[in-house]
């Protein structure tokens, strides 16, 4: 699920929390699919399920990485890096 872009400092925290909850639910569902796939013997089915997990978590991973970078760079001057 694509997360809509909200302007930085958006006062609409409720909408933001709603989309985060949806994304979390999607990831939980994908993880359940992976757990269920552990009993499968069909390599193509297993690959499809793991690819779905990878694609379904790309936005989440990017968001976490961006937050980590923002924390690391908070209060720093770009000229000093």
Characterise this structure:
The chain has 81 residues and is mostly helical. It has one domain (13-80). Helices cover 69% and strands 0% of the residues. It contains 2 helices and no strands. The relative contact order is 0.11.
Number of helical regions: 2
**What would the principal axes of the Cα set say about the shape?**
elongated
Mean pLDDT: 82
> Sheet bearing the most strands, described?
none
User: Which class of secondary structure composition applies to the elements?
Assistant: mainly alpha
Q: Spans of 5+ residues with little confidence (pLDDT < 50)?
A: none
Along the chain, the helix and strand elements come as: HH
The total number of structural domains is: 1
Our Rg estimate from Cα atoms comes to 17 Å
Fraction of residues in helix: 55-70%
Percentage beta strand: under 5%
Total strand segments: 0
Terminal CA distance reads 35 Å
């Amino acid at each position: 699920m694509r997360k809509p872009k909200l302007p930085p400092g958006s006062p609409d925290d409720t909408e933001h929390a709603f989309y985060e909850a949806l994304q979390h639910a999607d990831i939980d569902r994908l993880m359940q699919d992976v757990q269920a796939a552990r009993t499968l013997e069909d390599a193509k089915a297993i690959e499809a399920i793991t690819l779905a997990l990878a694609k379904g978590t790309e936005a989440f991973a990017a968001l976490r990485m961006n937050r980590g970078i923002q924390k690391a760079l908070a209060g720093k001057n770009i000229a000093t890096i």
